[in-house]
Every structure is written in C-alpha cells, then in structure tokens.
Input
Amino acid sequence: MYAQMVKTDGARIRSLDEMDPQERAFQERVDAGQKIEPKEWMPEGYRKTLIRQISQHAHSEIVGQLPEGNWITRAPTLERKAILLAKVQDEAGHGLYLYCAAETLGISRDEMYEQLHSGKAKYSSIFNYPTLTWADIGAIGWLVDGAAIMNQVPLQRCSYGPYARAMVRICKEESFHQRQGFDILMKMVKGTPAQKAMVQDALNRWWWPSLMMFGPSDDASVHSAQSMAWKIKQNSNDELRQKFVDQTVPQAEYLGLTVPDPDLKWNETKGGYDFGEPDWEEFFNVIAGNGPCNAERLNARKQAWDDGAWFRDGLTAHAEKAAERHGAAKVAAE
Ligand code: BYC
Output
C-alpha cells in the first residue's frame, strides 16, 4: 500500500519531551482541546495530514454524486426524483465546504483537482461500486451515509477549526440522507416479494464495502496513531466500524433483512456484535484504482473538468478585463 504525500509512522509517536518548544506548545494546545486556526503555526506533518484527509474527503463527496446522480431520472416518482436531486446537490455543497477548508492550509483548488485527476489523491473506496437497482439508492442512503455519519460526527471535534466547523452542517445533512435511504427501503420491503428481494440483494452487495469505508484494520492503518495524537481523528478505524455494526444490525432486523455475514453474532460480554473480517485484498485493490468503477468515475470527473474549460477561461478573461478597467479608471481619477 502506498501513502499519499505524507507518511506518518503510527508505531512511533514522539513524547512532549522529545519535541522542540514550538511543537510542544502546539501539542499542549491540542491536548487541552483548543482549536488550531489557519494562520497559526503548525507542524508540517499536521498540515500535510489535514490536506491529505480533507482533500480526499472533498473528492469523495464530489465523486459520490456520480453513482446517485445516475438514478435521478430513473427514480420511481416525481417526489423521489426531487428528494434525490436535493441529496446529490447537498453532496456538491459538502465538497465545496471541504475544498474551502483545505484551501486554508495553503493548497489551491486546482492543485487538489490535479491530484484527483492524476490518481495521486484517493477518494472513498465505496464509490467504485455500481448502482444496479433503485434499492441500491436506498442502501447507499442507509449504509453509506450511515457509515459517513459514524465517521464524521467525531470529526466535528477535530483539532483543526475550519474542518471541525465544516463538519457540523455536513453531519446534519447526512442525517437527512440516511433517513431518506431507510425510507426508500422501508417502502420496498413492504412491497412485492420481488421488491423485498431487490433490497436484500442491495444489502448483500453494499454491506462489506460499507464496512471498508472506515479504512483498514487498526494494525494496518498507517496514519491513525499520529492523527489521533493530533486529535484529527478521535477514534480508530476499528472502533468506528464496531459502532456502525452495532447500530446497523438492529435496523437490518427491523427491515426483515439478513446481514450477509455468517460470523455475525451478539457478544454479551463486550456488549456488541462479533463480525467477520472484510476482504482486505479487495479493499486494497479498489483503493489502488482497480475496483469495478474506478476508471468510469475518474473519467467522468476528468470529462467534467475538460467540459468546464470554456467557463473557467471566460471567468479569467472577465476578471482580467475588470482589473484593467479598474486600473484605467484609477489612473484617470489621479
Ligand atoms: N477509501 O492509515 P489509514 C461520504 C486510505 S464521503 C479510500 O487508516 P486515515 C459520502 C487512506 O487514505 C466519505 N482510501 O488512513 C459522500 C490511506 O492512504 P493515503 C469519505 C482509504 O486517513 C457522498 C490508507 O488507506 N469520508 O460519506 O488515518 C455521498 C491508509 O489508511 C479508505 C471521509 O473521507 C477508504 N475507505 O483513515 C454519500 C472521512 N480508508 O492517504 C456519502 C474523512 C483508508 O496515505 N476521512 N484509505 O494514500 C477519514 O476519516 C480517514 O481519512 C479514513 C482513513 C478513516 C477514511
């Protein structure tokens, strides 16, 4: 597995005594729960880690529009179309807040897009799977947005102010998204046997990729230890995955569905479910660019970038003319 831009050695976190005074003061502020703001001093690794995570998060929101956008015209009723349209628009908004948050760390929007288009920056593995039926749209809302909420609620307490604040509204909107997904599935499981079977099929295909959204297991997570020391992450990947399983299994039971995991079993002692291991080979293959839809998703984003060239050129030309006019008017007034 390669790590993009920055390597953090999870096994070796430096103690306060080993830090120089500036870094120690920074770490003490983080430990005290204070927010770090854009213009303040921060270790270079902290800045790079944030740029990596926030930009990947932004890319995920934008790429995440594609599998759902594909269903707007095919949603079964006008109301469902309008709701899905609003959800997909929300994802664009999330991407924009996150790109803005990343820009405060000194990277430009163009640079972030370039990293996405060249394959250097990752986006969430989940969006490299196809949406085959209408039940998939319900499953995405329920499971994918459900996993997103589980991961993102703690990010509202992230040590970096602009990221933490962007997450507040995003989490509120994700809650609406999760409920709309569950509502689609509630309707379908009460429908015909074929509709219920379609929902079960969607759960079978989306369950394991949803668990993979939380990232590799803790012992394989390169960045977790350092990101947790910097309070960028509040929980490890496995902790959040466990919480997600514990929350979601009763919801699957309520829908009358079977979670596709023969090892799933309530564990009274730990007060949570035991569950099987995701197929990590599949996960690493998907994040290396070889999932079922990686090429399609990236091509769609590159195409959108190329198609927007005339508009960017127009904006630049307009800005240059406006600056010239402003300059000429200033000279005339002097
Ligand atoms: N997919 O050391 P680790 C949404 C990468 S949007 C792809 O544990 P970290 C939604 C990881 O980047 C959902 N790559 O990393 C949108 C790293 O590679 P690099 C997106 C993954 O950062 C529209 C390597 O594996 N949410 O919900 O400590 C519609 C080692 O991992 C994944 C966010 O982005 C993955 N699943 O922890 C509906 C949340 N997992 O960068 C819904 C913010 C790991 O070294 N991000 N990798 O090349 C995070 O919380 C953390 O970045 C992660 C990974 C938990 C994802």
User: Anything to note?
Assistant: The radius of gyration is 22 Å. The pocket of benzoyl coenzyme A is lined by residues 3-4, 52-53, 56-57, 60-61, 64, 91, 122, 124-125, 144-145, 148, 151, 212-216, 221-224, 227, 233, 237, 287 (CB under 6 Å).
